[in-house]
Design a protein that fits this description.
Length: 255
């Protein structure tokens, strides 16, 4: 039964490698600039306040928990773990590749790497979230939750990354102002959240956007239209997420 998860040791190595590369990017830093310093070079209005990026600490903590949990021999029999396959390893490779592309300022390349990371996480998400209708507590918090949060943040990061690449390329936005495009992106992100929340009944994914949108509203206070749109969107998403969470709690009680 253990052979159902042949990647378990590779997954542990992948988590260690990802954390090491990200730590190196901050502590060295790679190419002489931190990730935040590079972000400040591209003042796109969709970028959240710096504190928002602390969510990576939570993501990496959850991934450590996932790596340990999935390596247990008995975990190989669990439907969520058996669905991981090589996808987590691939996502980790793309995560590290993005760090190098970003720090060495290959911004366009970083977009394609980010999209590849996004695709692998979508595959992981759909596999682990739909693997079973009755996950164990361990599966719920150490397999499903990490990828709910991870995918949510990478969705936000992808939007920011594409915006940065367009900014660097000098795109004129088809004549629309940067404020207008930022509002369009915020609305697009909100619609995406509602679609995902409805399809997968996932308040955790939605709360990541609440976190990001509040940080955008905070950072972009000089642009009232952007800040107000981000804040209103965050409130609407939060209300919907709470509603989904309450329905799930009621459903569990009825079982």
């Amino acid at each position: 039964m253990q052979h159902r998860n042949p990647y378990r040791w590779w997954n542990i190595a992948a988590v260690i490698a990802v954390i090491a590369v990200n730590a190196m990017a901050t502590l060295l830093p790679l190419n002489g600039k931190t990730t935040g310093e590079l972000s400040d070079q591209y003042p796109v209005l969709i970028t959240p306040a710096g504190y928002a990026f602390s969510i990576w600490s939570l993501i990496y903590l959850l991934l450590i928990g996932f790596a340990i949990y999935q390596a247990r021999p008995r975990a190989s029999r669990l439907p969520t773990v058996s669905q991981i396959g090589p996808w987590f390893l691939l996502s980790s490779l793309f995560n590290m590749a993005w760090i190098f592309a970003w720090h060495y300022e290959y911004v366009t390349a970083s977009v394609f790497i980010m999209l590849a990371l996004l695709i692998t996480l979508i595959v992981l998400y759909t596999r682990v979230v739909t693997a079973t209708s009755k996950p164990t507590t361990g599966e719920r918090f150490l397999v499903q939750l990490p990828f709910r949060i991870y995918l949510g943040w990478i969705c936000v990061a992808t939007i920011v990354n594409i915006s940065v690449a367009l900014y660097k390329a000098g795109w004129n936005g088809f004549g629309l102002s940067e404020v207008t495009w930022t509002i369009i992106l915020l609305i697009f992100g909100t619609l995406l959240v509602f679609v995902m929340g409805t399809r997968y009944a996932d308040p955790y994914f939605m709360l990541v956007f609440v976190w990001a949108y509040v940080a955008i509203a905070y950072k972009q206070q000089d642009y009232s239209a952007v800040s107000t749109t981000a804040l209103i969107s965050a409130v609407l998403i939060l209300i919907y997420a709470i509603g989904i969470a309450l329905r799930k709690v009621r459903a569990l009680k009825l079982r």
